[in-house]
Write a structure and sequence with these properties.
two-stranded antiparallel ribbon, G-protein coupled receptors family 1 profile domain-containing protein, receptor, disordered N terminus, G-protein coupled receptor
């Protein structure tokens, strides 16, 4: 069609204007004839997403692998040892140690399910070779471990707050059976709340605009589908911001209470010392008044016949009134309960900092939904 039109134009009467039009038309027709009109896929879609290298340089990967391996070995050995020691020694079956047992189990779950795939990721970022099922199991284990860790630390913090700030209520709250029920409920809640997060994970491929898979080598484990809108934001608030705020406030109150208790303990020691000094002065005064020099002649004769027991055995200190003894007992009980609770807090604080880095890493490196 284009060639026929070109011949018709060439055969027309020639004048300058027609020659100019004919030349332009001929160039347009030749350009159309030389153009391939079939649709083609450009390379812009292929290069649209920058996957980067499959792994970092060895100078980065090797140290990270060594550190991860040490963390894995030390974590497994330490947590397994903790569980064995607590399980085999009945005298260690306390509420605090049960909370530590729960934290050790959650740490092992995170180490076993998360650290080996993370080590492999640094050596080969893509493709993801573990499959769809393992991707979901990995996400489920990570979410369960994170949920159980933060809920356990929160429950323990509340219990320690009651034991330190309200020691007389700790006997009804801080019971072993109650701690066991709390831990079982924590794990059931952690498992249930991890399911909606886990089913959103899957193997994500790079796709063309029409939805077809571009390259199966470009596959990663990431968020594949959105089941609950804003689920990660809700999880960040429920399992990170709210618990960490509560834990911080309670530990501040615990610290203030311990500070006040130390001040009161110093005051009590000072008052006891003052009472002892007053009593000692009274004893000296009684002993001086009962000496032979200060007695009449008849009293001296009686003292010689009876052995002067009063001079050699000063009278005992006057007994405290019943209400003062009861008050001292309450103070001693509260002080002992606070001292024990403070030791448990120090023991538990070793587990506290383990959760924020884990959750922060999850939030910062949150994968993007497929197709976005």
């Amino acid at each position: 069609m284009y060639i026929l039109y070109d011949s018709v134009v060439s055969g027309a009467d020639s004048d300058p204007c027609s020659d100019m039009i004919g030349n332009a038309t001929s160039q347009l027709i030749s350009a159309l004839n030389s153009t391939d009109m079939t649709p083609s896929v450009t390379t812009e879609t292929i290069e649209a997403s920058n996957w980067g290298p499959k792994r970092d340089p060895l100078i980065v990967v090797v140290p990270i692998t060594i550190i991860y391996a040490l963390i894995f070995l030390l974590g497994i050995v330490g947590n397994v040892s903790t569980c064995i020691v607590i399980a085999r020694n009945k005298h260690m079956h306390t509420a605090t140690n049960y909370y530590l047992f729960s934290l050790a189990v959650s740490d092992m779950l995170l180490l076993v399910s998360g650290l080996p795939p993370e080590m492999y990721y640094h050596w080969s970022r893509y493709p993801y070779v573990f499959g769809e099922a393992f991707c979901m199991i990995q996400g489920f284990a990570a979410e369960t471990s994170a949920n159980a860790t933060v809920l356990t630390i929160t429950a323990f913090t509340v219990e320690r707050y009651v034991a330190i700030c309200h020691p007389f209520q700790s006997h009804t709250v801080s019971k072993l059976s109650r701690a066991v029920r709390f831990i079982v409920g924590i794990w059931i809640l952690a498992l249930c709340l991890a399911v909606p997060q886990a089913i959103q994970f899957g193997v994500v491929y790079e796709r063309r605009p029409d939805g077809t898979i571009l390259d199966e080598e470009h596959a990663v484990c990431a968020v594949k589908r959105i089941v609950i809108p804003h689920s990660f934001e809700i999880s960040s608030f429920v399992f990170f911001l709210a618990p960490m705020t509560l834990i911080t406030v309670l530990y501040v109150l615990i610290g203030l209470q311990l500070h006040r208790s130390s001040i009161l303990a110093r005051r009590d020691k000072g008052s006891v010392r003052l009472k002892n000094q007053v009593h000692h002065k009274k004893v000296l005064h009684v002993a001086a008044s009962s000496s032979p020099k200060n007695r009449p002649v008849g009293a001296m004769a009686t003292s010689r016949t009876t052995g002067d027991a009063t001079a050699h055995h000063p009278p005992p200190p006057p007994p405290q009134p019943p209400h003062e003894e009861e008050e001292d007992g309450r103070k001693n009980f509260a002080r002992n309960a606070q001292a024990k609770a403070a030791k448990h807090v120090v023991k538990m604080l070793g587990k506290g900092p383990s959760y924020p880095p884990t959750h922060t890493h999850k939030v910062v490196h949150q994968p993007v939904e497929e197709g976005s």
